[in-house]
């Protein structure tokens, strides 16, 4: 009886998660398509030094493209595809897209950090922003991190601790887990450090418009909040799943698996939140987007609420104010 009840609960869980992903896909597809359209045809990202932003949008769009397959599997009460090749391709795409999104996110945060905290010093990230080759290199460097999903002995959905493993199998699983956790924890530490330093620097600023400073602080803080919301919960759930699996606690593992899958579905909302934070933080892009897709009365209201801003990123306007104040002090 308990097994039947447990199976029924399993089916309900994945049916609910499938509809959550339907919502993410329904909202994420038009949002990311519209952002891609603006970046390529209206904003011309290569001329506005928004190459990193464009790469984040590409990563999010590829993630949205994976959702229909996940929805199909969950609708049929499957954690993964029964086709081994398709399962590996899906895991490969999820690893690659998440790594790219986080990689470009951290690079942009470092650029913001140097622009605000270390004014006057050489900003090596700014040089990277002007070179599309750097973006290509970042994508290529991410490929080795997906090797575990391409190894023939790799078992989908994490086989670590489930079976008696060969040396190669054990190394493959261990490497995959190291990649998963380091991909979240290390960038999160860097992001928190940069954000704290930026917030402290802006709070010490006394010259300039307070409204703009508050917006800049809100922006860098929201980056950490979104990162924490999307990626930290599934990381904690992954650690708990590994723990109960290695302890061979089967009942606890059945629950941990469902929690992990649910929080992974939550992490897919990153494709909805990234455009709102990283793209619309650039007021130049935001103005083009609003003028293209919003009705006239909404354009007028948004223009009035944003009066006094310039067609540059929020942190850039703040940096300019800081530079001007430094010049006066000299």
From TrEMBL:
Organism of origin: Oreochromis aureus
Membrane topology: Multi-pass membrane protein
Name of the protein in question: G-protein coupled receptors family 1 profile domain-containing protein
Leader peptide range in chain numbering: none
Organism lineage: Eukaryota, Metazoa, Chordata, Craniata, Vertebrata
Pfam family, one: 7tm_1
Subcellular location: Membrane
Transmembrane segments: 16-40, 52-71, 91-114, 134-154, 174-196, 217-244
PROSITE patterns: G_PROTEIN_RECEP_F1_1, G_PROTEIN_RECEP_F1_2
Family, similarity comment: Belongs to the G-protein coupled receptor 1 family.
The keyword Transmembrane belongs to this UniProt entry's keyword annotation: yes
């Amino acid at each position: 009886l308990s097994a039947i009840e447990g199976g029924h609960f399993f089916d309900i869980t994945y049916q609910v998660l499938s509809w959550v992903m339907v919502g993410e896909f329904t909202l994420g597809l038009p949002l990311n398509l519209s952002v891609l359209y603006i970046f390529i045809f209206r904003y011309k990202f290569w001329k506005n030094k928004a190459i990193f932003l464009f790469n984040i949008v590409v990563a999010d769009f590829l993630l949205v493209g994976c959702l229909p397959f996940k929805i199909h599997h969950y609708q049929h009460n499957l954690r993964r595809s029964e086709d081994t090749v398709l399962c590996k391709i899906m895991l490969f795409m999820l690893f690659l897209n998440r790594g790219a999104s986080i990689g470009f996110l951290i690079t942009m945060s470092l650029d913001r950090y140097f622009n605000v905290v270390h004014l006057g010093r050489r900003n090596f990230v700014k040089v990277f922003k002007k070179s599309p080759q750097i973006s290509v290199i970042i994508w290529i460097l991410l490929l080795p991190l997906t090797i575990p999903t391409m190894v023939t002995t790799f078992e989908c959905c994490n086989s670590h601790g489930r079976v008696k493993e060969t040396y190669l199998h054990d190394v493959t699983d261990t490497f995959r887990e190291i990649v998963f956790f380091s991909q979240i924890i290390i960038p999160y530490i860097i992001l928190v450090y940069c954000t704290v330093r930026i917030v402290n620097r802006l709070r010490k600023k006394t010259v300039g418009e307070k409204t703009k400073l508050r917006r800049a602080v809100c922006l860098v803080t929201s980056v950490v909040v979104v990162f924490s919301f999307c990626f930290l919960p599934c990381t904690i759930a992954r650690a708990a799943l590994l723990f109960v699996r290695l302890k061979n606690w089967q009942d606890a593992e059945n629950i941990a698996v469902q929690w992990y899958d649910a929080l992974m579905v939550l992490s897919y909302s990153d494709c909805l939140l990234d455009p709102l934070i990283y793209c619309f933080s650039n007021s130049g892009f935001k103005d083009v987007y609003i003028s293209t897709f919003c009705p006239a009365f909404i354009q007028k209201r948004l223009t009035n609420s944003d009066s006094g801003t310039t067609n540059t990123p929020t942190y850039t306007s703040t940096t300019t104010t800081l530079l001007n104040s430094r010049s006066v002090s000299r």
